[in-house]
Amino acid sequence: MNLHDLVRPNIWNLTPYSCARSEFSGKASVFLDANENPFNSPYNRYPDPLQVELKRLISAERFISADQIFLGVGSDECIDLAYRVFCEPGVDNAVAMSPSYGMYQVCADVNNIGYREVPLTDDFQLDVKAMFAAVDSHTKLMWLCSPNNPTGNAIDIGVIRDVCQRFHGIVIVDEAYGDFSSKGTMLRYLDQYPNLVVLQTMSKAWGSASVRLGMAFASPEIIAIYNKVKYPYNISLLTQQYAINAMRHSEDVRRWVDTILSNMKVLVNDLQSLPCVRHIYPSDANFVLVRVEDADALYDFLLARGIIVRNRNRVRKCLGCLRITVGTADENNELINALSEYGAK
Ligand SMILES: *Cc1c(COP(=O)(O)O)cnc(C)c1O
Prior knowledge:
Elements: H1 3-6, H2 9-12, H3 20-23, H4 52-62, E1 69-72, H5 74-86, E2 93-98, H6 103-110, E3 114-119, H7 128-133, E4 139-145, H8 157-166, E5 170-174, E6 196-201, E7 214-217, H9 220-229, H10 237-248, H11 250-272, E8 277-280, E9 287-292, H12 295-304, E10 310-311, E11 321-325, H13 329-344
Parallel strand pairs: 2-3, 2-4, 4-5, 5-6
Antiparallel strand pairs: 1-7, 6-7, 8-9, 9-11, 10-11
Helix pairs in contact: 4-10, 5-6, 11-13
C-alpha cells in the first residue's frame, strides 16, 4: 500500500496551522505567546493540542504506541476525518457492510462521497465476496463494524484480517462495543496492516457518552495526517482531565462491563419466555436485537409506559426488530414486566 496514492492531494500537501501551543512546547513560566487572558487559571490556557498525557495513559492501557493514537470529539470526528483525509468529493467512494452504524453514511453524504452498501448475509455475517465486488478504482474506504450495531454480533477476526490483506484502500474497523466482546480486537494487528484504522470510544463501556471522546488507532503515518487536518484544540482541557481520571479508574469499567454482561444473560433469558418475542439474535455487545410479533405496536406500547427502545423495523434485514440496550437489573425488569403485560392483553 502506498499512502500517498490514497490521501487526497490537497491534504497530502497541506501545511497545518501552527498553533502557539505546538510551536513552543518546552518548559516556561511566563506565557505571553497565545493572547490568552492571564486570569482564570487553568481555563485561560489553550489545552495540549496533542493530548500527550492522556495518550500516554491510553497507550499503556491498550498496548499501542502513543504516536498510533488519534483522539477525536467522539468517534464522529474520527469517522468524518476518514472521508476528509482520503476521499475526493464527487469522485471517490466507500464500501460498507449493511445494516450498520448510520454515521458512516451521514458523513459520506455531508462530504459528497459515494456510499456503497453491501448487505450482510441473513445470519449477519460479512459477505466478503460482495464487498469486493462493490469496490472500484475510486473506492478508498471500507467500513466494518465489529461488534456490529444494530445486529450485535462480532465479525470473525480472520475474516477482517483477510479484508485488510486484500483491500488496497483503508479498512476502518469500528470497535465501539469491543470492550463487551470476547471475540478479540484488531488492535494487535495494527503493525501488520498499514491500511488498518481501528475506532474505539469512551461512549459505551467507559460510560462517558456525554464527554465526547473517540479514539482512532492506526499507523504513525496515518495518525500524523489526521493530526494535521483536525482542529488544533479539538479536545478541551475539561475532556482531557476527565479522561485522564477515567483511565486511572479503569477497574470501574471492568466492573460495569461484567455487570452489564451478566444483566444481559438474565434479560435474554427473560425475553425468551415472552410470547411476543420471535427471535433473539446472539450479541457480543451491550444490546440485543430482538425480532418481535409486531415491532411498531410493541414500540408504541413501551413508549406509552415511558420505556424507549430502538425501533429497527425499517432497517435492512431487521424487519420486525427492536434493538434493546441492556440497562440496570431494575430497568430490565421494568421492560420485562411491561412486555409481559403486552403478551397478556
Ligand atoms: C455508539 C457508537 C459509536 C460511538 O460514537 P461516539 O461519537 O464516540 O459517541 C461509534 N460507533 C458505533 C457503531 C456506535 O454504535
